Amino acid sequence: MRELLRAAFVIARRDFTATVLSRTFLLFLLGPFFPVLMIFVFGAATAPIGSDAERPTVAVVASDQDYKALDQARARLSNALGPVTMINIRQVRPSGDPQQVQKLLQSSQPAYIAVLEGGLSNPRLIGSMRRTSGTVKQINLFVADARRMQEVSQPVEVEVVASKRAPGASVSGRALTARGGQSLLFLLTLLLAGMLLSQLIEEKSNKVIEVLAAAVPIDAIFLGKLLAMLSASLVGIAVWASVGAAAIAIISSTGLSALPVPAVGWPVFGILSIVYFAMSYLLLGAIFLGIGAHASSAREVQTLSMPVTMAQVVIFAIASIAVGTPDSGRALAAAAFPLSSPYVMIARAAEAPEIWPHLVAVAWQLLWVALFLRLASRIFRRSVLKSGPVKRVGTRPFLMTMLAGVGLASRN
Questions:
Q1: What is the spatial distance between Cα 377 and Cα 75, in angstroms, rounded to a whole number?
Q2: 192/179 Cα distance (integer angstroms)
Q3: Percent of the chain predicted with pLDDT > 70
Q4: Which strands sit side by side in the sheet containing 88-92, from one edge to the other?
Q5: Are 349 and 358 in contact (CB under 8 A)?
Q6: Residue range 123-141: average pLDDT?
Q7: In the chain, what are the domain boundaries?
Q8: How far apart are CA 194 and CA 296, in angstroms?
Q9: Which residues face 124 on adjacent strands?
């Protein structure tokens, strides 16, 4: 194992240096600034279509008759306006407790963004929203439509009473942070992991791969190339993050404070974002490296790119069902599936404050990285090189053999 890791690091250093110091790496760094617009387009297209778990919920302290009228008004408006994000309402019967409203605002299971009391005759909305917010406007529409159906001609405006920030006010915001983290992770993985499909084409064509395979195990070659491309990708991400941070500092004076704070906090969320990108890259990269190793030309790589991209989209769709319900059965199943696990867990970091599930998830993902690499190298050795297991040798003979093979290939 020690010699395998040493050989893998030698190959990783060789490939990393050749990649980062090349002139094409500059074009690689400039490329993502154009498709980054996809994030905003994707977010704008999917923002109005949210699940019920992501929508803010207002507790309605009212009688059965008043609540039924409000619920029917909401249903009519929802059918008339089409696929827009309507707030949820939930009935809470009056208990006579003077602290009932404050207890509802402080409740986290379920979490309410505001409380509507007073029925239809004297409606009063208590919460931390402004009078011009979408929640207040929708409640006014519900009340007006319900009074109209009861043939009450006198108009009434909902009184808005400011209160402390309720736990429910952050539920929809954290869901947005979760979707943003998933989208960014998906875009980076889609952009960077595809490069591994063409990693071995040049070395297969000039016979360098045979020299490497004779010197070190195929597992070390695959691991080294995977680590090299991960390191190059992290360099690119560092550059892009620096440019993004500078742009945010210039455009907005509030910075991250204007965004919904994730449940684990921004520092931990940033660390977990890097970790889960690395896990996603290693998981998909191990598979892509094994698939691309069987390609012998750039045309075959282009043919493989479409199904590979569609597979990533399917994985992202599987992971997106966990947003809003991090403890549901479907979320846990998506977290257990290794390829969608990083996307699910980065969303969980935005919605749940516990840290220990992330430690378990990272260990689980590392196990699958090792399994994928082992399987890919074995298939490559038997189907492409058509050889059995190779003997491990020391690093010095490996370097001498590799340099001799590279010199022979350059002379030919």
A1: 57
A2: 20
A3: 78
A4: 88-92, 57-61, 114-117, 124-127, 159-162
A5: yes
A6: 83
A7: 2-34+171-411, 57-165
A8: 16
A9: 117, 159
Say how far residue 367 (Cα) sits from the centre of its chain.
20
Closest CA to 318 of 189, 182, 194: 182
Spatial separation of the C-alpha atoms in residues 141 and 153, rounded to whole Å: 15
For tokens 């500059």, what's the residue? Answer: 26
Work out the burial of residue 141: count CB atoms within 10 Å of its CB; fewer than 13 is exposed, 13-18 middle, 19 or more buried. Answer: middle
DSSP-assigned states of every residue in 191-208: HHHGGGGGTTHHHHHTTH
pLDDT digits (tens, 9 = 90+) for 9-44: 888 888 888 888 887 787 777 766 666 666 656 555
Ramachandran class of 188: left when φ > 0, alpha when ψ lies in -120 to 50, beta otherwise: alpha
194 secondary structure, DSSP code: G
Question: What number of other Cβ atoms are within 10 A of residue 250's Cβ?
Answer: 8
Contact 140, 74 (CB under 8 A): no
Rounded to the nearest 10 degrees, the angle between the axes of helix 298-320 and helix 266-292 is 140
Distance of alpha carbon 349 from alpha carbon 328, whole angstroms:
15
Residues ≥6 apart with Cβ < 8 Å to 249: 255
Supply 34's token pair. Answer: 């154009």
Tokens of 109: 């299971």
- Cα–Cα dist 375/370, whole Å: 9
What tokens appear for 301 in the block?
A: 């790589």
* Residues 334, 322 contacting (CB under 8 angstroms): yes
Reported as type and span, the H/E element at residue 394 is: none
* Spatial CB neighbours of 247, under 8 Å, sequence gap ≥ 6: none
- In this prediction, residue 408 carries a pLDDT of 42
Euclidean distance between CA atoms 127 and 164, whole angstroms? 7
Decide: 53 and 43 in contact? Cβ < 8 Å.
no
pTM above 0.90, yes or no: no
Say how far apart CA 96 and CA 220 lie, in whole Å.
71
**Beta partners for residue 162, in sequence order:** 127
Q: How far apart are CA 367 and CA 242, in angstroms?
A: 32
